Amino acid sequence: MKDQASLGAVTDRDARLRWGVIATGKIASVVTEDLHRVDEVEVLAVSSRSQARATEFAERHRIPRAYDDYRRLLADPDIDVVYIATPHSQHHEVAKAALIAGKHVLCEKPFTLTVAEAEDLAALARIHGRFLMEAMWTRFNPLIQQLRTLVADGVLGQVHTISADFGFAHRYDPTHRLWDPAQGGGALLDLGVYPISFAHMLLGEPIGLEAHGALAPSGVDADTGLLLRYPDGGHAVLRCSLRAALDARAGISGPLGRIDLPELFFRPTELIVRITGEEPVTHSIELDGAGYTYQLREVCRGIRAGEVESPQLTHAESIAVQRTLVAAMETVGARVG
Q: Cα dist. 313→52, 95, 145, 287, 310 in Å?
Protein backbone atom coordinates (compact mmCIF):
# COMPACT_ATOMS: atom_id res chain seq x y z
CA MET A 1 0.00 0.00 0.00
CA LYS A 2 1.21 3.50 -0.76
CA ASP A 3 2.25 5.84 2.01
CA GLN A 4 -0.84 7.90 2.94
CA ALA A 5 1.05 11.20 2.93
CA SER A 6 1.87 10.77 -0.76
CA LEU A 7 -1.64 10.03 -1.96
CA GLY A 8 -3.23 12.66 -4.15
CA ALA A 9 -1.58 15.65 -2.50
CA VAL A 10 -2.34 19.02 -4.07
CA THR A 11 0.93 20.84 -4.69
CA ASP A 12 -0.49 24.14 -5.95
CA ARG A 13 -1.77 25.77 -2.77
CA ASP A 14 -3.26 28.68 -4.71
CA ALA A 15 -5.32 26.54 -7.09
CA ARG A 16 -8.98 26.15 -6.26
CA LEU A 17 -10.37 22.66 -5.79
CA ARG A 18 -13.02 22.09 -8.44
CA TRP A 19 -16.15 20.42 -7.08
CA GLY A 20 -19.00 18.58 -8.71
CA VAL A 21 -22.36 18.20 -7.00
CA ILE A 22 -24.22 14.94 -7.59
CA ALA A 23 -28.02 15.30 -7.08
CA THR A 24 -30.18 18.40 -6.92
CA GLY A 25 -32.39 17.98 -3.83
CA LYS A 26 -32.83 20.29 -0.86
CA ILE A 27 -29.66 19.27 0.97
CA ALA A 28 -27.60 19.64 -2.21
CA SER A 29 -28.94 23.16 -2.63
CA VAL A 30 -28.00 24.24 0.90
CA VAL A 31 -24.56 22.66 0.81
CA THR A 32 -23.82 24.17 -2.61
CA GLU A 33 -24.45 27.64 -1.25
CA ASP A 34 -22.00 26.91 1.57
CA LEU A 35 -19.50 25.63 -1.00
CA HIS A 36 -19.59 29.09 -2.57
CA ARG A 37 -18.54 30.51 0.82
CA VAL A 38 -15.28 28.54 0.84
CA ASP A 39 -12.55 30.57 -0.87
CA GLU A 40 -10.51 27.61 -2.09
CA VAL A 41 -13.49 26.00 -3.86
CA GLU A 42 -14.88 26.39 -7.36
CA VAL A 43 -18.25 24.71 -7.90
CA LEU A 44 -17.76 23.60 -11.47
CA ALA A 45 -20.53 21.09 -12.28
CA VAL A 46 -23.77 19.47 -11.15
CA SER A 47 -25.57 16.31 -12.26
CA SER A 48 -29.15 15.12 -12.04
CA ARG A 49 -31.18 12.34 -13.64
CA SER A 50 -32.89 15.08 -15.66
CA GLN A 51 -31.07 17.60 -17.83
CA ALA A 52 -33.79 20.15 -17.08
CA ARG A 53 -33.30 19.78 -13.30
CA ALA A 54 -29.53 19.89 -13.65
CA THR A 55 -29.71 23.04 -15.79
CA GLU A 56 -32.15 24.77 -13.44
CA PHE A 57 -29.97 23.93 -10.41
CA ALA A 58 -26.86 25.13 -12.22
CA GLU A 59 -28.46 28.45 -13.13
CA ARG A 60 -29.83 28.95 -9.62
CA HIS A 61 -26.49 28.20 -7.94
CA ARG A 62 -24.11 29.81 -10.45
CA ILE A 63 -22.58 26.56 -11.72
CA PRO A 64 -21.14 26.55 -15.27
CA ARG A 65 -21.65 22.88 -16.21
CA ALA A 66 -24.77 20.70 -15.93
CA TYR A 67 -25.00 16.96 -16.70
CA ASP A 68 -27.97 14.62 -16.97
CA ASP A 69 -26.06 11.64 -15.53
CA TYR A 70 -23.54 11.43 -12.69
CA ARG A 71 -21.32 9.26 -14.89
CA ARG A 72 -20.91 12.17 -17.30
CA LEU A 73 -19.89 14.40 -14.41
CA LEU A 74 -17.35 11.80 -13.23
CA ALA A 75 -15.92 11.67 -16.75
CA ASP A 76 -15.20 15.41 -16.62
CA PRO A 77 -11.40 15.62 -16.21
CA ASP A 78 -11.62 19.06 -14.61
CA ILE A 79 -13.49 17.81 -11.52
CA ASP A 80 -11.28 17.17 -8.46
CA VAL A 81 -13.84 16.28 -5.80
CA VAL A 82 -17.53 15.38 -5.69
CA TYR A 83 -20.22 15.92 -3.11
CA ILE A 84 -22.81 13.10 -3.21
CA ALA A 85 -26.34 14.00 -2.08
CA THR A 86 -28.32 11.18 -3.70
CA PRO A 87 -30.82 9.00 -1.79
CA HIS A 88 -29.05 6.71 0.71
CA SER A 89 -29.49 3.63 -1.45
CA GLN A 90 -27.26 5.13 -4.17
CA HIS A 91 -24.37 6.24 -1.95
CA HIS A 92 -22.24 3.15 -2.43
CA GLU A 93 -22.76 2.93 -6.19
CA VAL A 94 -21.97 6.58 -6.85
CA ALA A 95 -19.11 6.91 -4.36
CA LYS A 96 -17.50 3.75 -5.69
CA ALA A 97 -17.68 5.04 -9.26
CA ALA A 98 -16.26 8.41 -8.16
CA LEU A 99 -13.27 6.87 -6.39
CA ILE A 100 -12.52 4.60 -9.34
CA ALA A 101 -12.72 7.68 -11.59
CA GLY A 102 -10.04 9.33 -9.46
CA LYS A 103 -12.27 11.84 -7.67
CA HIS A 104 -12.11 12.75 -4.00
CA VAL A 105 -15.46 12.16 -2.28
CA LEU A 106 -17.67 13.76 0.36
CA CYS A 107 -20.70 11.47 0.70
CA GLU A 108 -23.86 12.29 2.61
CA LYS A 109 -24.81 10.35 5.71
CA PRO A 110 -25.51 7.57 6.30
CA PHE A 111 -22.33 6.52 4.53
CA THR A 112 -23.96 3.42 3.00
CA LEU A 113 -26.75 0.92 3.74
CA THR A 114 -24.53 -1.94 4.87
CA VAL A 115 -21.26 -2.44 6.72
CA ALA A 116 -19.77 -4.30 3.74
CA GLU A 117 -20.50 -1.33 1.46
CA ALA A 118 -18.83 1.08 3.89
CA GLU A 119 -15.77 -1.16 4.16
CA ASP A 120 -15.61 -1.39 0.38
CA LEU A 121 -15.52 2.40 -0.01
CA ALA A 122 -12.80 2.76 2.62
CA ALA A 123 -10.68 0.16 0.83
CA LEU A 124 -11.22 1.84 -2.54
CA ALA A 125 -10.16 5.24 -1.14
CA ARG A 126 -6.84 3.74 -0.09
CA ILE A 127 -6.35 1.75 -3.29
CA HIS A 128 -6.95 4.82 -5.47
CA GLY A 129 -5.33 7.32 -3.11
CA ARG A 130 -8.35 9.58 -2.84
CA PHE A 131 -9.83 11.42 0.13
CA LEU A 132 -13.17 10.01 1.30
CA MET A 133 -15.36 11.30 4.11
CA GLU A 134 -18.91 10.83 5.33
CA ALA A 135 -20.70 14.20 5.46
CA MET A 136 -21.41 14.16 9.21
CA TRP A 137 -21.18 17.95 9.45
CA THR A 138 -21.88 17.93 13.19
CA ARG A 139 -18.36 16.69 13.91
CA PHE A 140 -16.84 19.90 12.52
CA ASN A 141 -19.09 22.47 14.17
CA PRO A 142 -16.87 24.72 16.39
CA LEU A 143 -19.02 24.08 19.49
CA ILE A 144 -18.84 20.33 18.95
CA GLN A 145 -15.07 20.69 18.67
CA GLN A 146 -15.15 22.59 21.98
CA LEU A 147 -17.39 19.93 23.53
CA ARG A 148 -14.92 17.19 22.59
CA THR A 149 -12.08 19.18 24.17
CA LEU A 150 -14.05 19.76 27.39
CA VAL A 151 -14.89 16.07 27.70
CA ALA A 152 -11.31 15.02 26.90
CA ASP A 153 -10.01 17.48 29.52
CA GLY A 154 -12.22 15.81 32.14
CA VAL A 155 -14.42 18.78 33.10
CA LEU A 156 -17.29 16.32 33.71
CA GLY A 157 -15.15 13.49 35.01
CA GLN A 158 -15.72 10.18 33.27
CA VAL A 159 -18.78 10.51 31.03
CA HIS A 160 -21.39 7.91 31.98
CA THR A 161 -24.56 9.02 30.22
CA ILE A 162 -25.48 10.58 26.88
CA SER A 163 -28.95 11.44 25.63
CA ALA A 164 -29.88 12.69 22.17
CA ASP A 165 -33.11 12.89 20.16
CA PHE A 166 -34.06 13.84 16.63
CA GLY A 167 -37.53 13.48 15.18
CA PHE A 168 -40.37 15.12 13.31
CA ALA A 169 -43.80 14.09 12.03
CA HIS A 170 -43.81 13.35 8.31
CA ARG A 171 -46.94 12.29 6.44
CA TYR A 172 -46.75 8.65 5.41
CA ASP A 173 -46.22 8.19 1.68
CA PRO A 174 -44.76 4.84 0.61
CA THR A 175 -43.22 6.44 -2.49
CA HIS A 176 -41.35 9.15 -0.56
CA ARG A 177 -37.67 8.45 0.10
CA LEU A 178 -38.22 8.64 3.87
CA TRP A 179 -40.71 5.76 3.79
CA ASP A 180 -39.39 3.71 0.88
CA PRO A 181 -37.01 0.85 1.82
CA ALA A 182 -35.64 0.78 -1.74
CA GLN A 183 -34.37 4.34 -1.22
CA GLY A 184 -32.94 3.65 2.23
CA GLY A 185 -35.89 5.11 4.12
CA GLY A 186 -36.68 4.93 7.81
CA ALA A 187 -36.10 6.97 10.94
CA LEU A 188 -32.82 5.27 11.86
CA LEU A 189 -31.04 5.83 8.56
CA ASP A 190 -32.28 9.37 8.00
CA LEU A 191 -32.39 10.77 11.54
CA GLY A 192 -30.99 8.19 13.94
CA VAL A 193 -27.56 8.44 12.34
CA TYR A 194 -27.16 11.83 14.06
CA PRO A 195 -27.61 10.75 17.71
CA ILE A 196 -25.79 7.46 17.05
CA SER A 197 -22.78 9.25 15.55
CA PHE A 198 -22.89 11.73 18.46
CA ALA A 199 -22.72 8.90 21.01
CA HIS A 200 -19.92 7.17 19.08
CA MET A 201 -17.96 10.43 19.01
CA LEU A 202 -17.87 10.65 22.80
CA LEU A 203 -18.09 7.05 24.03
CA GLY A 204 -16.93 5.00 21.07
CA GLU A 205 -18.57 1.87 19.68
CA PRO A 206 -21.00 0.24 22.14
CA ILE A 207 -20.51 -3.29 23.44
CA GLY A 208 -24.23 -3.95 22.94
CA LEU A 209 -27.57 -2.33 22.27
CA GLU A 210 -31.28 -2.64 22.90
CA ALA A 211 -33.80 -1.20 20.47
CA HIS A 212 -37.55 -0.87 20.33
CA GLY A 213 -39.55 0.72 17.55
CA ALA A 214 -42.59 0.72 15.33
CA LEU A 215 -42.58 -0.19 11.66
CA ALA A 216 -44.39 1.66 8.88
CA PRO A 217 -46.55 -0.34 6.43
CA SER A 218 -43.62 -0.21 3.98
CA GLY A 219 -41.42 -2.03 6.48
CA VAL A 220 -39.05 0.80 7.42
CA ASP A 221 -38.88 1.96 11.04
CA ALA A 222 -41.24 4.84 11.79
CA ASP A 223 -39.51 5.49 15.09
CA THR A 224 -36.92 3.78 17.27
CA GLY A 225 -35.63 4.12 20.81
CA LEU A 226 -32.10 2.93 21.51
CA LEU A 227 -30.06 2.05 24.57
CA LEU A 228 -26.37 1.71 23.74
CA ARG A 229 -24.35 -0.13 26.39
CA TYR A 230 -20.73 0.61 27.27
CA PRO A 231 -18.23 -0.85 29.75
CA ASP A 232 -18.53 0.17 33.43
CA GLY A 233 -22.25 0.87 33.02
CA GLY A 234 -21.94 3.81 30.65
CA HIS A 235 -24.88 4.19 28.30
CA ALA A 236 -26.52 6.36 25.67
CA VAL A 237 -30.28 6.81 25.40
CA LEU A 238 -31.21 7.86 21.87
CA ARG A 239 -34.49 8.40 20.00
CA CYS A 240 -35.44 9.08 16.41
CA SER A 241 -38.87 9.38 14.83
CA LEU A 242 -40.68 10.13 11.60
CA ARG A 243 -44.05 10.30 13.33
CA ALA A 244 -43.41 12.41 16.45
CA ALA A 245 -41.91 15.86 16.99
CA LEU A 246 -38.94 15.30 19.30
CA ASP A 247 -36.74 17.97 20.83
CA ALA A 248 -33.45 17.85 18.92
CA ARG A 249 -31.44 18.19 22.11
CA ALA A 250 -28.46 16.36 23.58
CA GLY A 251 -26.93 16.05 27.02
CA ILE A 252 -23.67 14.63 28.35
CA SER A 253 -23.35 13.78 32.06
CA GLY A 254 -20.56 12.79 34.42
CA PRO A 255 -19.91 12.89 38.17
CA LEU A 256 -18.82 16.55 38.06
CA GLY A 257 -21.72 17.95 36.03
CA ARG A 258 -23.29 18.00 32.59
CA ILE A 259 -23.12 19.75 29.24
CA ASP A 260 -26.33 20.57 27.37
CA LEU A 261 -26.78 21.22 23.68
CA PRO A 262 -30.17 22.88 23.09
CA GLU A 263 -31.90 22.52 19.73
CA LEU A 264 -30.53 21.77 17.25
CA PHE A 265 -27.80 19.61 18.79
CA PHE A 266 -26.47 18.52 15.39
CA ARG A 267 -25.82 22.14 14.32
CA PRO A 268 -25.46 23.87 17.68
CA THR A 269 -25.13 27.59 18.19
CA GLU A 270 -25.14 27.27 21.98
CA LEU A 271 -23.47 24.99 24.53
CA ILE A 272 -24.16 25.16 28.28
CA VAL A 273 -21.66 23.79 30.80
CA ARG A 274 -23.21 23.02 34.19
CA ILE A 275 -20.56 22.06 36.76
CA THR A 276 -22.02 21.08 40.13
CA GLY A 277 -21.76 23.96 42.60
CA GLU A 278 -20.91 26.53 39.93
CA GLU A 279 -22.91 28.94 37.83
CA PRO A 280 -23.73 27.61 34.33
CA VAL A 281 -21.47 28.88 31.58
CA THR A 282 -22.93 29.39 28.09
CA HIS A 283 -20.80 29.34 24.96
CA SER A 284 -22.35 30.54 21.71
CA ILE A 285 -21.39 31.10 18.08
CA GLU A 286 -22.87 32.50 14.91
CA LEU A 287 -22.73 29.86 12.22
CA ASP A 288 -20.72 30.42 9.07
CA GLY A 289 -23.38 30.09 6.38
CA ALA A 290 -25.75 27.21 7.05
CA GLY A 291 -23.05 25.42 9.03
CA TYR A 292 -21.67 23.09 6.36
CA THR A 293 -18.60 25.23 5.64
CA TYR A 294 -16.61 23.66 8.48
CA GLN A 295 -16.75 20.15 7.03
CA LEU A 296 -16.14 21.49 3.52
CA ARG A 297 -12.93 23.17 4.67
CA GLU A 298 -11.87 19.93 6.34
CA VAL A 299 -12.29 18.09 3.03
CA CYS A 300 -10.16 20.71 1.28
CA ARG A 301 -7.50 20.51 4.00
CA GLY A 302 -7.36 16.72 3.81
CA ILE A 303 -7.09 16.70 0.02
CA ARG A 304 -4.29 19.27 0.02
CA ALA A 305 -2.46 17.26 2.70
CA GLY A 306 -2.68 14.10 0.61
CA GLU A 307 -4.80 12.26 3.18
CA VAL A 308 -7.39 9.59 2.40
CA GLU A 309 -9.46 10.25 5.55
CA SER A 310 -10.03 12.92 8.15
CA PRO A 311 -8.51 12.31 11.59
CA GLN A 312 -11.67 13.89 13.02
CA LEU A 313 -13.94 11.37 11.26
CA THR A 314 -12.01 8.33 10.14
CA HIS A 315 -13.28 5.57 7.89
CA ALA A 316 -13.22 3.23 10.90
CA GLU A 317 -15.58 5.54 12.80
CA SER A 318 -18.05 5.74 9.92
CA ILE A 319 -17.96 1.95 9.59
CA ALA A 320 -18.56 1.55 13.34
CA VAL A 321 -21.57 3.87 13.17
CA GLN A 322 -22.84 1.77 10.27
CA ARG A 323 -22.53 -1.37 12.41
CA THR A 324 -24.66 0.22 15.12
CA LEU A 325 -27.26 1.41 12.59
CA VAL A 326 -27.51 -2.05 11.01
CA ALA A 327 -27.74 -3.78 14.41
CA ALA A 328 -30.55 -1.41 15.44
CA MET A 329 -32.46 -1.99 12.21
CA GLU A 330 -32.10 -5.74 12.57
CA THR A 331 -33.32 -5.59 16.16
CA VAL A 332 -36.52 -3.73 15.30
CA GLY A 333 -37.01 -5.73 12.07
CA ALA A 334 -36.76 -2.76 9.72
CA ARG A 335 -36.50 -3.34 5.97
CA VAL A 336 -33.79 -1.72 3.88
CA GLY A 337 -32.94 -2.03 0.20
A: 36, 17, 12, 20, 5
Q: What is the rounded CA–CA span in Å between residue 336 and residue 319?
A: 17
Q: Is the dihedral of CA 5, 22, 98, 66 positive or negative?
A: negative
Non-local CB neighbours of 153 within 8 Å, separated by 6+ positions: none
Answer yes or no: is 22 within a domain.
yes
Alpha-carbon gap, residue 299 to 311, rounded angstroms: 11
Which of 118, 137, 156 is the C-terminal boundary of a domain? 137
| Domain of 183, in residue numbers | 142-286+321-332
What global pTM score does this model have? 0.94
Question: Domain boundary at 137, 159, 192, which?
Answer: 137
Answer yes or no: are the C-beta atoms of 7 and 14 closer than 8 Å.
Answer: no
Q: What is the pLDDT of residue 12?
A: 54
Rounded-to-integer distance, Cα 112 and Cα 16, Å = 29
Q: What is the pLDDT of residues 154-183, one digit of tens each?
A: 999 999 999 999 999 999 999 999 999 999
Query: Mind telling me the catalytic residues?
Result: 109
pLDDT per position as a tens digit, 6-17: 344 454 556 899
CB 191 within 8 A of CB 240: yes
